[in-house]
Design brief:
Number of helices: 9
Distance between the termini: 41 Å
Shape: globular
Structural class: alpha/beta
Number of strands: 24
Strand content: 25-35%
Oligomer: single chain
Number of domains: 2
Largest sheet: 14 strands, mixed
Radius of gyration: 24 Å
Length: 383
């Protein structure tokens, strides 16, 4: 549950102004772009910070909750550190757990318990220490630090050059252990390729490869090429469909687009709540209608509309986030250029395993909830 807190804050940080607060923060330095807890400052209790650039160099006797574009921590935290950001750089000390969602995560400090990381790229540097377990999902993971517990990783590429006291369980495209790697337990990994283990790497347990059943069926030959071609074609069709929907909204339904974005800007949490409610109610209503003979045609129609609605709702979220970023570089809102840039960024992020699925789901929920809220706003303004 705690991992959902920073993820939601990442979306909200774009439109929430820079801010920090705690039980006691007499030395906080704050501008419109930077939030700083300076060295020498001591905060008693939990500390919260939102902003573009956040620096925590002081001491916090409690948990720290942070969301921003760039986060740098070289202070001392006696509780958990929970972060959602574009990039995170940790060089300080976290006495308990680290939980991160970020585009880039660099861990160069000491973590007293466990580290849980969802990131585009994750680097655990040589000078870092994780005294408990590491759970990481990322496109690329570089694990060079000491880990006192187990390691569980899902990644496209995993490189291990540190000392791991216990077991490694990995779901990877490619696994490599350098000559500096030391593993005190077993290594079990699921992959379509055999791991590269450099001469000099120390592994005290067993190394077990678990190739997938699909890999056995399509290894080499025509089916492998067909699968790759189908994925590329599906991705391209998805991109073109989403682009076409956005273009239609810009050219034909600009008022609908503006009212929906108005709802997202002014009532984001309400939009998210509406979206979750619709995500549950609409399929439920369809199933109830399917249980009656007269309701079957209506149920099938509603199911088709559900699929189209769920698939299209993300377009409004892409517009919403694109406008927020493009406003900072003075690009026109609701323009084809800003939307295209946002669309490319969206598809890059959603291509990340697991993390991309979460981003796509949240984008759908926000957009789905904004549509009825926008309609109610239009009706109330008409009266």
């Amino acid at each position: 549950m705690r991992m959902m807190i920073p993820f939601l804050l990442t979306w909200l940080s774009i439109f929430i102004p820079s801010k920090s607060w705690a039980d006691d923060r007499p030395n906080d330095k704050e501008t419109s772009d930077v939030v700083i807890l300076p060295a020498g400052s001591v905060v008693q209790g939990d500390y919260f910070a939102f902003g573009n650039n956040i620096e925590i160099s002081g001491k916090v006797n409690g948990d720290v909750y942070v969301t921003g574009l760039q986060v740098y921590v070289d202070g001392e935290i006696s509780g958990d550190l929970i972060v959602a950001a574009g990039s995170v750089d940790l060089e300080g000390t976290v006495a308990h757990n680290l939980r991160v969602i970020a585009g880039q995560a660099t861990i160069n400090g000491t973590i007293g318990r466990n580290a849980t990381v969802l990131a585009g790229n994750a680097q655990f540097m040589k000078s870092g220490k994780v005294l408990g377990n590491v759970v990481c999902t990322s496109a690329n993971v570089d694990l060079g630090c000491y880990v006192g517990g187990d390691v569980t990783v899902a990644a496209s590429n995993l490189r291990i050059s540190g000392a791991i006291d216990h077991d490694i369980d990995a779901y990877v495209g490619q696994l490599r252990l350098t000559s500096r790697a030391e593993v005190g337990g077993d290594i079990e990994y699921k992959s379509n390729t055999t791991a590269f283990i450099d001469e000099g790497a120390i592994i005290k347990g067993k190394v077990t490869l678990h190739p997938s059943l699909v890999h056995h069926l399509i290894k080499g030959g025509f089916l492998h090429g067909l699968l790759i071609g189908s994925r590329i074609a599906g991705l391209l069709m998805n991109f073109l469909y989403t682009f076409a929907i956005g273009l239609i909204l810009i050219k034909i339904y600009p008022r609908k687009l503006e009212s929906t974005l108005y709802a997202l800007n002014n009532s984001p949490l309400k939009c998210f709540g509406f979206g979750l409610m619709l995500l549950i109610l609409l399929p439920l209503v369809s199933l109830i209608l399917l249980m009656t003979i007269l309701g079957i045609p209506f149920a099938l129609t509603l199911l088709a509309l559900n699929v189209i609605g769920f698939y299209t709702a993300k377009v409004f979220s892409i517009f919403w986030i694109s406008n927020k970023f493009c406003a900072k570089v003075r690009l026109k809102k609701n323009a084809l250029t800003s939307y295209t840039l946002g669309l490319v960024l969206y598809f890059l992020i959603t291509s990340i395993p697991i993390f991309g699925f979460i981003v796509a789901f949240v984008a759908m929920v926000f957009g789905l909830g904004a549509i009825p809220l926008a309609k109610s706003n239009r009706k109330s303004s008409a009266h």
